[in-house]
Design goal:
mainly alpha, 2 domains, two-stranded antiparallel sheet
């Protein structure tokens, strides 16, 4: 993929997680009265917020809730006034877009990954075999009796033409 296409895909996928990442976990514990967002909490723990959001949205809700609960609970004391990390995590996980069925997700992954890949030896071999079969069929059709462009007609048409020619020649 080009850098521009990669950026477009990235911004589309990032925007899917905005509601989750901008949601409040609770008040920041430093007496400022500011709300602490999921984005800030993850960044403070050196976790990429968008990668974590994508990861959480791709696993079952229970697993995602457990993971987010542990991330919230791991915030340094005084950083958040979140009373119930588990309840809060369940509320936040509900904001994530749920991934499509595994078949759809894997097809999309294949499409994204396949955009810049080269052909494998197996693919080349299959295409060469198909090409050889097509060429052999064309050769067979072109060389069978009665298929050439200069071949004389056979059957009743030839018999009539031959008879007419013989009658003309006999009358001379």
């Amino acid at each position: 993929m080009t850098a521009r296409a990669d950026t477009a895909v990235s911004s589309v996928s990032r925007s899917r997680f905005e509601e989750f990442l901008l949601a409040s976990i609770g008040e920041d514990g430093n007496d400022s009265g500011m709300q602490l967002s999921v984005l800030s909490a993850l960044a403070r723990q050196n976790v990429d917020p968008w990668e974590e959001a994508a990861s959480l949205s791709s696993v079952p809700s229970e697993m995602a809730t457990q993971r987010l609960t542990s991330l919230i609970a791991a915030l340094p004391k005084g950083r958040s006034t979140c009373p119930e990390p588990g309840v809060n995590a369940a509320r936040l996980i509900a904001l994530l877009p749920r991934a499509a069925s595994p078949d759809v997700r894997s097809r999309m992954t294949l499409l994204r990954r396949g955009a810049g890949q080269t052909w494998t030896a197996r693919q080349v071999t299959v295409y060469v075999i198909i090409l050889a079969v097509i060429l052999a069929l064309q050769w067979f059709v072109a060389t069978r009796p009665g298929a050439g462009p200069h071949h004389q007609a056979s059957g009743p048409t030839r018999g009539i033409a031959s008879s007419a020619t013989e009658l003309r020649n006999a009358g001379r």
